[in-house]
Amino acid sequence: GLPDRVTVYEVGPRDGLQNEKAVVPVEVKAEFVARLAAAGHRVIETTSFVHPKWVPQLADAAELLGLVEKVPGVRYPVLVPNERGLDRALEHGVEEIAVFASATETFARRNLNRTLASQFEMFEPVVARALENGLRVRAYVSMCFGDPWEGPTPVGQVVEVGRRLLDMGCFELSLGDTIGVGTPGHVTALIGAFGGPSRLAVHFHDTYGQALANTLAALRAGVTVVDASTGGIGGCPYADSATGNLATEDLVWMLHGLGVETGLDLASLVETSTWLAARLGRPSPSRVVQALGET
Ligand code: HMG
Ligand code: MG
Asked: How large is the average pLDDT for residues 11-21?
């Protein structure tokens, strides 16, 4: 069976805009976030409190949060890697954060400047202190299916990293296919290796065109939270060959076709993606935006 309802965890303003060559003006980001809430999104990952030299595209995180008019009932999580990031998030009234771990040694070093083992020493005080302050903490594991340097990632290695994050008290674990190499059988096997879908979300990049098929496999395994980016923008600057996330519009087309509720208005999302594409100076990679959007 399939779930009656799916929560779309929107990552466009964070995963999408972190990978743009040009820095998008902060006012455009604020309007993007407002449009996403107006289209029905109830969770919008807004920005990152990472090192501004590592991701200059999101160096305006504090200013952006000042511009976002929070809609009641909408969550605005931000990425936080370490205690310095948590301090910044707390200063700006953030109520939900996401920490992001790596399933592989090479990506831990490249993305976090840590070893696979020492990344947990960075996250432990962040999660503990965030929980003490009443924040909700989500966790990501990146490179769950494969890594550009190490090849396919052993399922057991992903489960080990993911379990440690859940045991710290994270309410949800998002399984990231950072470079989009996963296929549906692998998705089913990974969720099975976790012992089922409890507290799991999925985060697919569409590099090899597998994101929708992988999502369907995850839904069939019982997952009800799916990450996506409006317009299909995104990618990780520290992962070679990472392209855009699963496009929210492509996901919503499939879910509504299956009779699964999302609370999202597809026409508003397409209009927003068309608007954003004009600001970014290139068309959206989403097939649904291409089919339904005005050009
Ligand atoms: P580091 O160089 O090891 O940091 O970077 P450090 O702890 O040694 O600190 C060095 C200096 O940076 C210090 O300043 C800190 O205060 C400062 P100094 O004392 O020398 O003057 N600093 C900070 N400043 C502002 N905000 C901070 C911060 N932290 C330290 N948060 C670090 C380690 C983790 C900070 C760095 O590697 C980093 O920022 N990495 C983030 C990379 C990133 O954002 N990647 C993209 C997101 S992950 C992703 O896209 C995957 C995902 O979508 C899922 C998927 O697709 O799989 C989530
Ligand atoms: Mg990602």
From this structure: 95
User: Residue 144 catalytic?
Assistant: no
| Closest C-alpha to 227, from 129, 139, 114 | 139
Ligand having the closest approach to the CA of 56: 1
- Cα separation, 283 vs 295, in Å, equals 9
Q: Using alpha carbons only, give the angle 49, 18, 35 rounded to the nearest 5 degrees.
A: 95
| Ligand 1 atom at minimum distance from 122 CA | 34
Please tell me what DSSP assigns to residue 12.
I
The answer to pTM > 0.90 is yes
Band of the pLDDT at 295, cuts 50, 70, 90? low
Identified catalytic residue from 89, 165, 228, 236: 236
H or E element at residue 215: helix 211-220
**Hey, what are 209's tokens?**
């065109």
Contact between residue 31 and residue 62 where contact means Cβ atoms under 8 Å apart? no
Does ligand 1 have an atom closer than 6 angstroms to the CB of 119?
no
| Positive/negative CA dihedral, 259, 265, 268, 272 | negative
The 10s digit of each residue's pLDDT in 82-122 is 999 999 999 999 999 999 999 999 999 999 999 999 999 99
- For a ligand 1 pocket test, name from 50, 115, 145 the mutation site with the most ligand atoms within 8 angstroms of its C-beta: 50
φ and ψ at 146, to 5 degrees? -175, 165
